[in-house]
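User: Hi! I'm working on a homework problem where we have to compare a predicted structure to a textbook description. Could you give me the structure for the chain below?
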Amino acid sequence: VVLSTFPVAIPFMLIDEPGTALRVSNAVAIAMLYACGSILGSYAGRPRWVVGTIMAVLGIVLVAITIALGG
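Assistant: Happy to help. Predicted structure tokens:
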């Protein structure tokens, strides 16, 4: 769990503007969700791209809700 936070935190160390770093961090998190969903789909015997896409869409919905609530 600790190692999975590093890719999401790296944009805050490299980008000076907090808003841009937040959006890049969100994109990294969504890409990681797709990758983990793809691996899960392979393990479960389902189409990798379908499970990966479902996970990524779930992440996009959660980011949209967070933005709508002021985040």
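For your comparison, note the following. The longest helix spans residues 18-44. The helical segments are 2-14, 18-44, 48-68. Good luck with the assignment!
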